[in-house]
Amino acid sequence: MCINFSMKKTKNLKLKEQNEKLADLFSLPHDILCGASNVSIIGSMRVMIENYKGILEYDRETIVLQGKQSKIKIIGNCLKIRCYNEEEMVIDGRIDGVLFFQ
Amino acid sequence: MNSYFRAICGYVCVQVKGYGATRFINICAKRGIKLWNVEKNEEGYRVNISVSDFRKIRNIVRKTKVKVVIVSKHGLPFFFAKVKYHKFFAIGALVCFFWLFIMSNYVWAIEIEGNISITDNMILDYLAENNIEIGIKRNNIDAESLEKMFRRDFEDITWISIGQDGTTLTIDIKERDVNVYEEDKYVASSLYAPHDGIVTSIIVRSGSACVKKGDIVSEGQLLVDGILPIVKTDGTVLGYNLVNADADIVIVYPEVYTDKISIYADEKTYTGEETKELYLCLGPKTLCFHFFMPKYENTELIQSFYQLKLWEHFYLPIWFGTGIKKEYVLERVKREETELKDQLYENLELFLESLEEKGVQNIQKDVKISISGSMLILSGEIHFADTNLLRKEITASMGTELENGQYNTVINGNER
């Protein structure tokens, strides 16, 4: 079981690497091929995120989202989700920082 | 745009309570249920969700074991549901909307711009003669033919544009420059004396002078002729050139001036009694309601009206007005002689100023004030120097009267 899991993980890593190479080779967007999250920040008052799975944590100071490759942490004040659907999320408020972590 | 669409379709603001609140909104997003204005509070999440999506969340609520409470309802479906219990309000709103729609098909204001010598009243009277008044249906106005009529009947209008903006009929006018008009009006013309007088100065630029300095002229006398004979060296006339006569001629003439003013005058003495009136006029000032009716013998009425409008050019046929009626008593009083004299001299100055604007200068005045009965009279003789001359066109019939009928027309040195 343990061997199976590690095999699956290496297979996934290999696939990811291949996709990245392919994206570089044909100048294709990474977010489509590798499933990377697309984060757009407008000034310090709005963040738009695409390619994410869901919310992990939400309060007025921090929002943690599960991305397809990593977790995304938005730090700020008076944070509010303006729009939330399958495709994108719009967060309003005073944005202090955006952090990516595993 | 999205928010308008949501308002039309209707949405609810719900409070999601429970341990699985975060899971609930994640599943909603995954299943294509759109959420907006997601806010975290102490109890859980407060989210907005459309009415159609709200019906789909039953299974998710059961699955995540959360409690969903509707906080507020927004949008047209809820408005109509409320209106069901306020039928008269709904009928009133519908009637108002219908009335606005009907009223927007009529003209309720006329705006005139660009007119200088042609007054607003002249234009409004002309429009009224052609059955165009406030209250006319917008479709009944043929702007193109109306513009043609204006150009035909008002010679001074060089350009006119008639348009409709909301319930306002807008008329833009450009008037002709009078001086340019005079110059271009005739092909050939002569100058004549406008009234009796003495010629004190004459400078002829074009045409042949028929008078000289010091001559006494009478009204209508030819001063500068626009018909120039072409004479051979032996004195025989070969033909004639017709020109626009041009000259600076000053004619001095005396005029008797008389102005009188009564020593006694009826003066209004206000009693201090006054009442305010309110008006509500529907239609083009045909139906007026006076809310208060005062009963005074002599009253002075000051009225002001305000026309209701929805926005800049959308006037409505409703006028609100206020009026103040002041009671007064007429008293016959004797006025101060110095005050009356000042007034007479002021009238004279105004008269002279108005003439000066027309190019008639006052060069000498000999006036005195006398009292006759109850009147104070200012009379005397004033000498004016007039530079305005009468211009008359040399007509074709005058041309045929000339010898052999041979003549040329010379304008600005070019032969025609």
List keywords for this structure.
heterodimer; A: alpha+beta; 6 strands; 27% helix; 50% strand; B: 416 residues; alpha+beta; five-stranded antiparallel sheet; 24 strands; 26% helix; disordered C terminus
Secondary structure: elements and pairs:
The complex is a heterodimer of chains A (102) and B (416).
Chain A (H helix, E strand, L loop, with lengths): L1 H24 L4 H4 L4 E5 L3 E5 L1 E7 L3 E6 L3 E14 L3 E14 L1
Antiparallel strand pairs in A: 1-2, 2-6, 3-4, 4-5, 5-6
Chain B lengths: L1 H8 L1 E7 L3 H10 L4 E6 L3 E7 H4 L3 H7 L2 E8 L1 H8 L3 H17 L5 E5 L6 H10 L13 H11 L3 E9 L2 E8 L2 H8 L3 E4 L4 E10 L1 E2 L6 E2 L4 E4 L1 E5 L5 E6 L3 E17 L1 E19 L4 E4 L8 E11 L5 E20 L2 H21 L2 E13 L2 E12 L3 E4 L2 H6 L5 E5 L2 E2 L1
Parallel strand pairs in B: 5-7, 14-23
Antiparallel strand pairs in B: 1-3, 1-4, 2-3, 6-7, 8-12, 8-22, 9-11, 9-15, 10-12, 13-14, 15-21, 16-17, 16-19, 18-19, 20-21, 23-24
Task: Provide structural commentary.
The complex is a heterodimer of chains A (102) and B (416). Chain A has 102 residues and is α+β, with helices and mostly antiparallel strands. Helix content of chain A is 27%, strand content 50%. Chain A contains two helices and six strands, in the order H-H-E-E-E-E-E-E. In chain A, strands 1-2-6-5-4-3 form a six-stranded antiparallel sheet, with no helix packed on it. The relative contact order of chain A is 0.15. With 416 residues, chain B is of the alpha+beta class. Chain B is 26% helix and 46% strand. Chain B has eleven helices and 24 strands. In chain B, the strands form six sheets. A five-stranded antiparallel sheet of chain B has the order 11-9-15-21-20, with helices on one face. Chain B has a four-stranded antiparallel sheet with strand order 2-3-1-4. In chain B, strands 10-12-8-22 form a four-stranded antiparallel sheet, with no helix packed on it. In chain B, strand 23 and strand 24 form a beta hairpin. The longest helix of chain B has 21 residues. Chain B is elongated, with a radius of gyration of 40 Å. Chain B starts with a helix and ends with a strand. In chain B, 15% of the residues are buried. The C terminus of chain B is likely disordered. At the A-B interface, strand 3 and strand 5 of A face helix 2 and strand 2 of B. Strand 5 of chain A pairs antiparallel with strand 2 of chain B, so a sheet runs across the interface.
